[in-house]
């Protein structure tokens, strides 16, 4: 497998000494673009300015409010997040995964572990994003097919065409107007609803 390119990494940690351990591990692994944020206030702005490939969150003492704040960030920034915590419980871990945290590591901050954990976080995030895109595409295709079927039904009912004739007419119109078939179908459905031609 080809080595991954160097990542831009944003570290969120109030404890400078702990952040330095992560930073050292990242630099030894070849990741030179590392930025440390000590305060979670304004984190989304920091992320937008630095544009990291991955975010590392290190929490010494995670409480519910702090975890929820990070989960809100993770939902809005759409980046892989690796979260290191000193201790955890099943609810916190479940909430982290549900919020999109790609790697959740309990009591395991050693600099030599940082790189493989980040690589895993990025790969998991990419795999999850790919699945999300595929699901969105499938939903979109299904919605498009439903619109085409509705438009076909309208033509069949209003013009007395067979299913094949209705489809051929829409396809020919799409080619003539240099539009997609689904766009012609949407126009038909919209026009029919405006003219009261739909059931």
From TrEMBL:
Keywords: Phosphoprotein. Residues 128-189 form the ANTAR domain. It holds the Pfam family ANTAR. Residues 8-122 form the Response regulatory domain. SUPFAM superfamilies: CheY-like. Signal peptide: none annotated. InterPro entries: ANTAR, CheY-like_superfamily, Sig_transdc_resp-reg_antiterm, Sig_transdc_resp-reg_receiver, WH-like_DNA-bd_sf. PROSITE patterns: ANTAR, RESPONSE_REGULATORY. CDD domains: REC. PANTHER family: PTHR43367, TWO-COMPONENT RESPONSE REGULATOR-LIKE APRR6-RELATED (PTHR43367:SF1). This is Response regulator NasT. It comes from Aureimonas phyllosphaerae.
């Amino acid at each position: 497998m080809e080595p991954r390119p160097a990542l831009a990494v944003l570290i969120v940690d109030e404890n400078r000494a702990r952040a330095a351990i992560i930073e050292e591990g990242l630099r030894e692994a070849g990741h030179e673009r590392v930025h440390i944020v000590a305060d979670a206030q304004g984190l989304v702005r920091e992320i937008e300015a630095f544009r990291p490939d991955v975010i590392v969150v290190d929490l010494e003492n995670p409480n519910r409010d702090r975890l929820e704040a990070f989960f809100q960030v993770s939902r809005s920034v759409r980046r892989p997040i690796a979260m290191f915590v000193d201790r955890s419980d099943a609810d916190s871990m479940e909430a982290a995964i549900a919020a999109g945290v790609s790697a959740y590591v309990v009591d395991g901050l050693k600099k030599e572990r940082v790189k493989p954990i980040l690589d895993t976080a990025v790969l998991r995030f990419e795999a999850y994003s790919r699945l999300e895109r595929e699901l969105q595409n499938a939903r979109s295709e299904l919605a498009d097919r439903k619109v085409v079927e509705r438009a076909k039904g309208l033509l069949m009912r209003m013009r007395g065409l067979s299913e094949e004739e209705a489809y051929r007419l829409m396809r020919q119109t799409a080619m003539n107007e240099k539009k997609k078939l689904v766009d012609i179908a949407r126009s038909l459905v919209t026009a029919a609803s405006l003219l009261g031609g739909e059931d």
